[in-house]
Amino acid sequence: MKTKSLVSISDYSKEDILRILKAAATFKARPNRDLLKGRVCATLFFEPSTRTRLSFETAVNRLRGRIVGFSDASTSSSTKGESLKDTIMMVGNYADLIIMRHHLEGSARYASEVSPVPIINAGDGSNQHPTQTMLDLFTIYETQGRMENLTVTIVGDLKYGRAVHSLIQGLSHFNPSFNFVAPDELKIPDKYKTFCDKLKIPYREFTEFSPEAVNSADILYMTRVQRERFTDLMEYEKVKNIYVLHNEMLNGSKENLKVLHPLPRVKEISQDVDDNPKAYYFQQAENGVYTRQAIICDLLDIPME
Amino acid sequence: MVSIHVRRSSATYWTFQWSECYPKYKQVKKMGKELQVAALKNGTAIDHIPTEELFKVVTLLQLQKLGNRITIGNNLKSNKMGVKGIIKVSDKFFREDEINRIALIAPNVNLNIIRDYEVIEKKKVTLPDEIIEIVRCNNPKCITNNEPMKTRFEVVDKERVVLQCHYCELKITKEEIELK
């Protein structure tokens, strides 16, 4: 029998997303429960990660589950040349659920095909990171009280950022409008514009971080512009300070606006924004725990009421 | 063994066993028809192969592993294509999934199924919905290039031949296709 897994945000229908968001809200209200008592969750982090791993482990611990696993591939049997399949088959016989991050793209899909237990993809290279998208969606739902008809401005690296691409996919069920703000080198790939066109999702593209892009938004989703993404370093020097959010830029924004960021933040949000009540990125990271609690219980068919 | 050599063009000679094809040869000559297809007694003739794809078709169909008599012609004159390639395989009738692989690189080829010198069926190749194992993923960071496993692609655009890796989700176009 094929087990349920979460590999890509496209594995979730609109109904699935709404079900998880509602469940995440109940976990936020009451995060400490016995739902995973007697269960073992494996966290296989072939690639290091701080926030994602700690958030998953917190989610499991708060539900009284136990954790086995590794946080660095150098301490795993893959260094001895063991195939991913063999590792997954073995751990699948120990644990009730496998949470994995791997540097190779498609690894989580493959793992889900060979594993006897559900797999949660905690990032496979630059491909998918669906629990990040779910926590972004939950934060949007929580702060706006709705999912439909929101204007979302996404700023920074729209070319390589997998969080951005998955967010566009995840929001596409809810009739959004997008403002894409990025330098030419990092603008949104055509395939996502075609995706929006097909679904009749309106979007505007900006190369300047203009007041219009901020003031029309319900959600301002900031991402990091990384130096190593640029082929032309002169170009990076030109744009590196343009896509930075300062507190005064929020003066004309909507009352309900919330500023989100998948973190880690470097310089793209200046520190003076942190005290603005519209800044919500740390709560967003906290929401990762509740969203992951909901996803884990849903995959294991554990009733959450 | 008596053989007949038929010069089809400046580039290609075809060889047939005299005893086998002589009666049909006479009949075909009388009718003024082309010899190239009728000369096969039983089997499959794959026609209208783009000349540059001919040997890829040979590889895709694994013809080098067959013991059957195989005739390969290339740079033959074609009204439709200018020049073309043809492959004729005696006593071989390919399964749909075998033959549809060709659509990856030569979507417009014609298949002639021949029994007793007659074309009893003409077929077009069609791309399947899914391609397993034949194509390599172009993403070096794809799991399929790093684990001993089969590749798997969904055909997302049959007309333009666009494949998407089932694992890393990379899309590859016809020009980018690399066979395993």
TrEMBL record, chain A:
Which catalytic reaction applies to this protein?
carbamoyl phosphate + L-aspartate = N-carbamoyl-L-aspartate + phosphate + H(+)
Protein's pathway:
Pyrimidine metabolism; UMP biosynthesis via de novo pathway; (S)-dihydroorotate from bicarbonate: step 2/3
Keywords tagged on the record: Pyrimidine biosynthesis, Transferase
Residues covered by the Aspartate/ornithine carbamoyltransferase Asp/Orn-binding domain: 149-297
What GO terms describe the biological role, i.e. biological process, of this protein?
Answer: 'de novo' pyrimidine nucleobase biosynthetic process; 'de novo' UMP biosynthetic process; amino acid metabolic process
Binding-site residues for carbamoyl phosphate, renumbered to this chain: R51, T52, R101, H129, Q132, L263, P264
Cellular component annotations (GO), alphabetically ordered: cytosol
Q: Which GO terms describe its molecular function?
A: amino acid binding; aspartate carbamoyltransferase activity
Start and end residues of each Aspartate/ornithine carbamoyltransferase carbamoyl-P binding domain: 4-142
Q: Where is L-aspartate annotated to bind? A: K80, R162, R224
Q: What does the record give as EC number?
A: 2.1.3.2
What span is annotated as the signal peptide, if there is one? none
Protein purpose: Catalyzes the condensation of carbamoyl phosphate and aspartate to form carbamoyl aspartate and inorganic phosphate, the committed step in the de novo pyrimidine nucleotide biosynthesis pathway.
Describe its partners and assembly state: Heterododecamer (2C3:3R2) of six catalytic PyrB chains organized as two trimers (C3), and six regulatory PyrI chains organized as three dimers (R2).
Membership in a protein family: Belongs to the aspartate/ornithine carbamoyltransferase superfamily. ATCase family.
Stated name of the protein: Aspartate carbamoyltransferase
